[in-house]
Design the sequence.
């Protein structure tokens, strides 16, 4: 369990944050630029002094202002990947990696070979850091942080300075780390797509405060999220289990709640977990079983709640068998269909609007 | 060689004094630059002003103060002689001390400019990788401020070659011991018929200064390339 409490006043800005993360896990620290995410991460790393705070990882207390415990960053065993990589310009890639490994405080469980393998650093080893592309720099920075044998990895917007294609180039490596090394991570981002692909938990921040937290599925329904990601990006994030290929369509059948979806996904193994976001704007609600439609996916469920969305629309929560999804409908539709809690409904979604991610 | 015995003696002595002066002041200059750039403490402005004092004082005043402090009966000079047998007055080491004090601000300035350009984020990154304060300084800060250290050392070396007032006040003008190029030039001008000798010494000084500057430029370029700029 990672426990973080941090308070810090800096001029007009006030940080007042508190969150917990079951370990191992990846917590996405999510909020608009300037909401205090980096400040919080710097307090966790020890690079910034907190007025009051506590940082504890399992049994190890790294900071507890009440008990006057405050380990310096060099003794916290926290790996930190900065937005700007911060590779040492006077050292080669290999020397940057050795720099971290030589200073590791515990016997290595992550060696240079493993890091080079996980992050494809082999061909980069003898390059100078200024010869690397943005994506390569971040991969080296991630490798360097791992070689300190960290008990916690902080990633402060590691992809924010990369363009979309470079981002796509680095993301799979981060997914590999999450799946192959059991190192808890704090992943800071203002891009919900990244959080969606990497995080198991989500902490929302606004104006220096942590305003909501929980596992990703629950948090995807949280009304606070809408204010940050915008109405169009609101939608339930659900876990899906691969059932197998659908021979007729060439799509992949996955189980969601007690229903079934067909999605586009490459070579997934039966039983594997996928994460799917069902955007509220892409869902259609029907009060009768649908017929004669091109829509491939129909999930039956029961309305849990009707929430007022901004303007002339409502968000309809539908329990599809232990999992809740959300659809946006106009208030007129709510009225005409007589949508209300406990009403059985069918939620329809086009296969082409689904983007499954491996988890 | 086409230098006279006196000229090569003065040239060799100048080089010897300037080298000693730079070697002696280098570690103190690095420390001062680091403290003045990276540390916040009460009295920082006073220390800063103190370091820059030789730039604004007449060199004769520095020579005089050195005489008071490091002379045979001065508090530091007397102790140095009793404890270590080190004599400064009327010696080339004394000349080196005088030039070191005079060129110190130039050295510190060059290093500070370089140090201010070292990204503190890199030092923070080194911290998170487990490097303590001395470790960080030796492995990150110092290598990255190396262009400034070299520039400072070379500037100070060239300035040391030309220091006159503080040297002649503190250690006098002794041939073969403290009569460096500028002092030899001055002596030549004081001697009837010494115009020709003075002109030759002036040309030697010019050539020396010029090659120093060219060398410094060449070094700076090499180091910049090494640091990946």
Sequence:
């Amino acid at each position: 369990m990672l426990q973080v409490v941090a308070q810090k006043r800096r001029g007009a800005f006030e940080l007042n944050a508190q969150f917990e993360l079951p370990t191992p896990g990846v917590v996405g620290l999510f909020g608009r630029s300037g909401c205090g995410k980096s400040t919080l991460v710097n307090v966790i790393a020890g690079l910034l002094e907190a007025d009051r705070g506590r940082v504890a990882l399992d049994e190890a207390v790294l900071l507890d202002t009440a008990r006057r415990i405050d380990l310096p960053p060099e003794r916290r065993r926290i790996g930190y990947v900065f937005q700007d990589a911060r590779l040492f310009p006077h050292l080669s890639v290999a020397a940057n990696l050795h720099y971290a490994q030589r200073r590791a405080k515990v016997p290595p469980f992550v060696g240079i070979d493993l890091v080079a393998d996980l992050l494809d650093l082999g061909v980069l080893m003898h390059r100078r850091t200024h010869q690397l592309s943005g994506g390569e720099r971040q991969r080296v920075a991630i490798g360097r942080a791992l070689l300190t044998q960290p008990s916690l990895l902080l990633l402060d917007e590691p992809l924010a300075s990369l363009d979309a294609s470079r981002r796509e180039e680095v993301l799979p490596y981060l997914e590999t780390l999450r799946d192959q090394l059991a190192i808890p991570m704090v992943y800071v981002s203002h891009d919900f797509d990244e959080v969606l692909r990497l995080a198991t938990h989500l902490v929302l921040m606004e104006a220096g405060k942590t305003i909501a937290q929980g596992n990703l599925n629950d948090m995807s329904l949280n009304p606070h999220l809408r204010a940050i990601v915008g109405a169009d990006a609101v939608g339930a994030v659900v876990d899906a289990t691969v059932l197998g290929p659908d021979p007729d369509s060439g799509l992949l059948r996955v189980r969601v709640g007690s229903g079934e979806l067909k999605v586009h996904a490459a070579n997934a193994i039966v039983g594997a977990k996928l994460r799917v976001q069902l955007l509220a704007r892409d869902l259609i609600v029907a009060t009768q079983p649908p017929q004669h439609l091109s829509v491939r996916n129909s999930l039956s469920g029961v309305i849990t709640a009707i929430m007022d969305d901004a303007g002339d629309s409502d968000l309809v929560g539908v329990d599809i068998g232990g999992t809740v999804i959300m659809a946006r409908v106009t208030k007129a539709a709510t009225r005409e269909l007589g949508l209300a809690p406990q009403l059985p409904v069918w939620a329809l979604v086009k296969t082409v609007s689904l983007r499954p991610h491996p988890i | 060689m086409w230098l006279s015995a006196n000229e090569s003696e003065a040239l060799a002595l100048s080089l010897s004094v300037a080298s000693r002066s730079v070697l002696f002041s280098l570690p103190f200059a690095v420390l001062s630059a680091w403290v003045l750039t990276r540390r916040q403490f009460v009295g920082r402005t006073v220390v800063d002003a103190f370091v820059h004092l030789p730039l604004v004082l007449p060199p004769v005043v520095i020579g005089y103060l050195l005489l008071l402090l490091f002379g045979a009966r001065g508090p530091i000079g007397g102790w140095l002689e009793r404890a270590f047998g080190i004599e400064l007055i009327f010696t080339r080491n004394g000349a080196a001390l005088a030039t070191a004090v005079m060129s110190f601000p130039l050295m510190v300035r060059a290093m500070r400019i370089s140090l201010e350009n070292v990204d503190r984020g890199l030092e923070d990154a080194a911290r998170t990788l487990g490097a303590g304060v001395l470790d960080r300084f030796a492995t990150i800060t110092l290598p990255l401020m190396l262009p400034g250290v070299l520039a400072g050392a070379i500037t100070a070396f060239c300035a040391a070659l030309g220091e006159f007032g503080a040297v002649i006040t503190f250690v006098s003008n002794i041939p073969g011991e403290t009569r460096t190029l500028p002092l030899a030039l001055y002596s030549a001008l004081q001697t009837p018929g010494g115009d020709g000798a003075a002109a030759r010494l002036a040309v030697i000084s010019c050539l020396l200064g010029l090659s120093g500057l060219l060398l410094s430029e060449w070094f700076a370029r090499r180091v910049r390339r090494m640091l990946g700029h």
